[in-house]
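**User:** My hope is that you can spare some time for a protein that puzzles me. I have put the entry right below:
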Amino acid sequence: MTSDRSTPAAQEPETDHAAAPAGLEATGERLVPEAYAGSLVLAEHLARYQFASRLARGRSVLDAACGEGYGSAILAGAGATSVVGVDIDEATVAHARHTHGIEAHEGDVSRLPFDDATFDLVVSFETIEHVAEPELALDEFRRVLSPGGVLVVSTPNADEYLEDNPYHQRELTLTQFKQALSARFANVELRYQQNFLTTAVLREASLGSDDAQPLDAEFAKVAGVAPERALYGVAICSDAAIPSAGGDVVIASDVHEAHTLAQLLRDWTARAQTAERIQKEWEQRATLAEQRKTSIEAQLLEIDARNRELERQAEELDDRLQVILDSTSWKVTRPLRRVRGNS
């Protein structure tokens, strides 16, 4: 069955003869390698593409939500017969064409602009959580795969992914992820992506390398994680037997990230201690002010009581004076007071 969609993979590759597009802004919605050089987030993305590249040789590949195109270039370099990228953002597509020389098209993963059964391998990393209905994207990936084709897809684990990403519309748990894939493919193999702090004893050349190429190194772990606690799920899906994708993939990030995190922790600890000290000072001031307020209120009450006593005494004197003025003695001695006053 064919759809009414065009098939860019069968057309001449689109080229961009205009001036080079402006550099992409690192907004957090898509990875720009230059903006994240040496970082953990770059290592996360590269590990996924290095893993998928093991299945690219001899296959026609769709990189769905290709972003700026670095992953498509990795897949092409791994021996794919063809690689086509698709992304919803026009500027990003232009950048991918110009920067990496790949064939890229503007399109929505929920309605891919390709005919049925066009690709042998569909790769889509950290995509389905960006659409309102991830199932529609999975249906489209299934549709454009050739019989026996392979889908490699990843998503963050909603149970463990703590970052509040404003670009995510609907996140799945790993259980939901596998259930959605198993409903569409006969065979599903789930791999797990987790971040670890690492330490390494390296030769000089290995220490200086930063190209994410494999090292001649042993890798061991001293910490285990239950599968359901993994940060990401990376699935290989097919109606045919799952092809071998080899062993584990490990890509280390900048050694300074741990130090940066430790420094941030120290800074926040110092700030917390300062905030605690300031809070105690304010509490002491508030207590002192309350004590002073209580003392002042007591003094005011005492003054008020004294005033009332003085008023009472004044009223009593007025009453006594009036009694004297009204008395017969006062009236009889009035002439004498007058004479004394004149003398």
